[in-house]
Amino acid sequence: MLLRDAGMLLAAGDVNDQAHQTCLRLLRQADGPLPAQSECDCRTGRLGCGAMPDDNADLSSPDGSASPGPGAGARRLERLSDAESMELLASGGFGRLVYNSRYGPTALPVTYRIDEGSIVLGTWDPVLFDEDLRTGIAQAEYQVAVEADQIDVKAREGWFVLVRGAAHHLDTEAERAPFIDAGLEPWIEGVPAHFIRVNPTSIWGNRTRRA
Questions:
Q1: Which of 114, 116, 135, 205 is the most buried (most CB within 10 A)?
Q2: How does residue 87 score in pLDDT terms, banded at 50, 70 and 90?
Q3: Counting runs of H as helices and runs of E as strands, what totals does the chain give?
Q4: In which element (H, E) is residue 197 found?
């Protein structure tokens, strides 16, 4: 009976000082040993002293609540201008060439550099890109996209830029000469260098950082 009355107090939820003392008195008058958790239950008005299960509690916080991680805090999303986007691209050198191949949408890693407002890509498999990025019609070029980014996942900050344009293959020696030994050569020995110039028709860039 006494344990039942104590349980009713616990069920009430809001345990003030008077109810706390009454709960303890009822428990101590009960026959038999008390569970170790009982006094704790009287103090909190619920099962367990904490406000959350142990596996969700942050023990480094005084009250057991989750503490903000290193990425906590307000962020703002900025739309980048074309000039800002190209400036960020110029600080990089590694991105992704995105296009529709015969197998469907494809994104492949490429090296690149900015040259007079356009993007010159260094590819590593001329056969692959010949099959998917040549129309076979003079002056008709496939539309592609080039994406590059710099993301700090832990800080939840970074930027990305997406450039769309036509893929122009640099086939003549005069077109290719400025980019020989410019850091765009294939990383694999024995693979011939092949360059593609993308003249932007649209530029989209976003940056996220602390407010």
A1: 205
A2: very high
A3: 6, 7
A4: strand 194-210
Q: How many domains does the chain have?
A: 2
Is 130 inside any structural domain?
yes
Q: At what angle do helices 17-29 and 2-12 cross, to 10 degrees?
A: 160
Residue with tokens 């710099």: 150
Query: Do 89 and 185 have their domain in common?
Result: yes
Residues 20 and 112 in one domain: no
Q: Do 102 and 36 share a domain, yes or no? A: no
Q: Give 28-47 pLDDT, tens digit per residue.
A: 655 555 555 444 444 444 44
Q: Write the DSSP symbol of residue 53.
A: -
List, for residues 147-171, the tens digit of each pLDDT value: 999 999 999 999 999 999 999 999 8
Q: What is the spatial distance between Cα 115 and Cα 55, in angstroms, rounded to a whole number?
A: 54
153, 117: one domain? yes
Question: What is the gyration radius of the CA atoms in the chain, in angstroms?
Answer: 33
Q: Is residue 62 part of a domain?
A: no
- The residue range of the domain holding 151 is 75-210
Report the candidate in 98, 197, 90 with the shortest Cα–Cα distance to residue 145.
Answer: 98
**42-50 CB contacts, 8 Å cutoff, 24+ apart:** 42/6, 42/9, 42/10, 42/15, 43/15, 44/15, 45/9, 45/10, 45/12, 45/13, 45/14, 45/15, 45/19, 46/10, 46/13, 47/10
